[in-house]
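Chapter review: from sequence to fold.
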Amino acid sequence: MRVGLYSTVARKPISRARESVLPLPCGAQAEDIKARRQQVTQAAAAGHFGELLNISDFFSLSGCRDLLFHTQEQSVTLDGVQVFLETNGLTFLGFDIGADVLRAYKQQFPTDMAVANLANWRAFEAANPATFLDMYQFWIQKPLDLAARSAG
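The token string follows.
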């Protein structure tokens, strides 16, 4: 199964911006979103929230609404992912990740041949917090229960 989850680490700049930008009123119109986006743009010019200007969603109305004003967004850490996998008997197979990130990871952790050690990925993310800015996208599987299969 392929899973996509927001990274708490990578989304810290977004969370900080959300806390400082006024919430949208119920039934907000395009002008409301544009005004809030202008606030963030001005803050970026003053040295705050500049990371948001590198996110393509910031520049469209629907993307900006989702990025800055999503009221039910939840994010997780890799520790939380690890606990979930262990609790549910699932195996982490690896991330869908760009070649540049993969190359940098392999350079830092050359003994992780499967590129699937979550402890290593936690360390990598701590050193490179924007790695999962879009989201964690990874593959998991439930191992085949041979005993149950042969009994059936």
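Two observations follow directly from the output. The chain has seven helices and four strands. The chain has a mean pLDDT of 89.
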